[in-house]
Input
Amino acid sequence: MQSTEVQTSSERIGKDRVKLRVEVPEASLAPALTAAYRKWAHDIRVPGFRKGKIPRQIIDARVGAETVREEALREALPDFYSEAMGAEELEAIAPPDIEVIDFTQGSPVVFEATVDVRPEIELPDIGSLTVEAPSSEVDDEDISEQLERLRDRFAELEAVSREARRGDYVLIDLNGVRDGEPVEGASAPDLLYELGSRTGPPKLDDELEGNRPGAILRFTDAFGVGGEEAAANDPAGGEISFTVLLKEVKTKKLAPLDDEFAKTVGEFDSLDELREDLRSRLGEVKLRMVSEEIGRLVLDELVRVSDLEPPEKLVDTEFEHR
Output
């Protein structure tokens, strides 16, 4: 966009609305006029003239000089408006309402644009804001919780002869058929399955619970191993006949919290050394979390004490897009 000698003035007519008055020298319209005449020279046919070589006076006679000027103005207005906004250092948040005031030939082009702009926001002194920071202290309860998680992670599975319960791991042979034919994805030999995880056929957990090793279970269900994901890969659909052999029931055996457990977890000589390492690591994590939380609290407080009513145009636009 070539720079023009636009003259601008603006006045606020609301908290977030400005009326912009723009005056553009007629000469600044010349490039758009040239482009408009070139377009018409290609669009109309005049006997005796080659396409694109029709003189302006012929075009004026055919379509009217004012028609060409109006078309040129329509093409040029966005650039004139953009330059005027830059000159006034305004930032629009919505398309403007433009009204041409004067488009008399031989005179400057004058138009007014009513435009919604970002409101001027007065922020309070951030140094005056106070928020209550959460504690970053690591207490014994935090350490105990982490130790229990480590015990669960490093637990060994131990076979038991009792009935299967939620949280147990069961070793099963799973077979699924439909109309006497195996269903892809519905069978799994020697499947180690966590009872209560609900990652198999929907009825599997309920069928297994309360049964002992050696039990043979039969039921019909809609999905194979993998639940709904497996159903999506089963184009035939329909119920599947399942046979399940419960081979073993296993439960997690948690190690005692002692020095040997600390050596299993990592390069620690004692449980106390493991505790101190956890306290140090948790302290770093909590400090980061508290720092992020303080930032959020300060931002919330800043929003609370500031006058941040959103511009009406932005609200209307948001509702239109929902």
About this structure: The chain has three domains: 7-116, 123-154+255-306, 156-253. The chain has a mean pLDDT of 88. The chain is about 35% helix and 25% strand. The domain at 156-253 is CATH 3.10.50.40 (Chitinase A; domain 3).
